[in-house]
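Hi V.,

You were right to ask for the full record rather than a summary. Here it is.
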Amino acid sequence: MIPERPIWEPLPNCTVTILCSGPQSAVIWAMETRTLQLVLQYDGARFAGWQRQPGERTVQGVLEDAIERLCGTHITVLGAGRTDAGVHALGQAAGVRVQEKWTPPVLKRALNAVLPRDIRVSQTHQMVEDFHARYSATERAYRYLVGTDEDAESPFRFGRELAWRKPLDSLLLDECATMILGDRSFRGFAVKGTAPESDDHHCIVRSAKWVERSGGLAFSITANRFLHHMVRFLVGTMLDVGSGRRDIGVITRLLESADNHEVSPPAPPYGLYLERVDYPTQLYLVTA
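Predicted structure:
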């Protein structure tokens, strides 16, 4: 028996198609939408990571709440990856499907007007319909900041970089970075269970280097994907090697290891920045 009225109401800007077959009717609401990529900057200090969690302030949660405030309905935001609690972003990517009226520049201005000060939309791009923020990505880039001068312990730099007061051998750090290049298993540099056992835990590291910067060093790395805590484990182990606490052979052993038992403690999250996420150019329709 067909109900007198739908048990749910249509969303704004929807077209309605009624399909009839025999005694029953099916009502399909087809919303006119556009797929957008949001490029995000955020200070991770007051976020419990990317993924929405009950009772926790997360990047995904704050962003979805802001979009719901604008659009009048809950819309899921998919991130390119899940940054840990305390990790910052200069170019995190996220995908969202919104009503057609939300053009890239309009949504950017509206979101930045309602988002808290520790998160900002820096760019918006219109993407093809089958764009997926995580699975469409071809490369991700991270940077870890290490402060080596006395002012690294300043309250104005605390929470933005790791203060490291022990001497570091730059040649050893460079050698460590070279050793991890290429298609390798990083099971030894990942949290156990970060990927299914059927996964080979391989990542293709396309670049990895330590560079001098004002007040210290920075470790930059790009790869097709990263495992849970991978960059922080790499940095923690490399710093132990560079300071003479461990031999450089530990890098080779961990790259060949089936577990992470020999890895050094991970570097703190507050020195880590997700710099950018790259996608094939053919996925972009309109940029703003």
